[in-house]
Amino acid sequence: MHREIRGFQPGDERALYDICLRTGASGEDATGMYRDPDLLGHVFAGPYAALAPDLAFVAVDDDGVAGYVLGAAETRAFERACERDWWPALRARYPRDSADQDTNDSWLVRLIHEPMEVEQDVVERYPAHLHIDLLPRLQGHGYGRRLLETLFDALRAAGAPGVHLGVALANTRAIGFYHRMGFTEVRRHPHSLVLAKYL
User: What CDD domains does UniProt report for this protein, alphabetically (predicted)?
Assistant: First the structure.
């Protein structure tokens, strides 16, 4: 089977959204958990493809794109770009009261209006951040490591001294993988961790 890591290309967006949904329940398939299946992608994948495509890389096999890593070299600058160029259209499309409070959609709509912010001292030490997701068919074959190493090289070239990420406490498999990749815990929240690594 042919498998490769390559840079993001226009036309990959739909695959990014699909992978984001199919890994969106602490690494498990979140299909059916959201009334609007695009919401996860709008928050965690789309802005990177649109605003930082040079730091987006995908793993491809014979069946298409099956994994990705998405990054931003300077988190605060990326947040400003999102405020200017990504969130306004989504806020118009998804008003604050557009999702019922008893659905999973509601927290994502809230994030569109009130995006998460990592603590300033974390961003100062580790200004870059990333998201990585792989479909099960590529897991356990070294593609997560290869994706991260590809992004690390690109972040170093962009001048980023360190990188952080967020992970759900329930996603124990991912946490173990990140530790093996050299990440350490820098913040603990009730349901998630912030892990970071110097580059």
Answer: NAT_SF (cd04301)
Q: What is the pLDDT of residues 12-56, one digit of tens each?
A: 999 999 999 999 998 899 999 999 999 999 999 999 999 999 999
Percent of the chain with pLDDT over 70: 99
Cα–Cα distance between 172 and 177 in angstroms, integer? 9
From CA 167, how far away is CA 44, in angstroms rounded? 12
C-alpha 30/C-alpha 19 separation (Å) is 10
Rounded distance between C-alpha atoms, residue 81 and residue 113, angstroms:
15
Distances in whole angstroms, Cα of residue 176 to Cα of each of 28, 40, 95, 143: 16, 23, 37, 15
Q: Is pTM beyond 0.70 here?
A: yes
The CATH code of the domain at 4-87+117-198 is 3.40.630.30
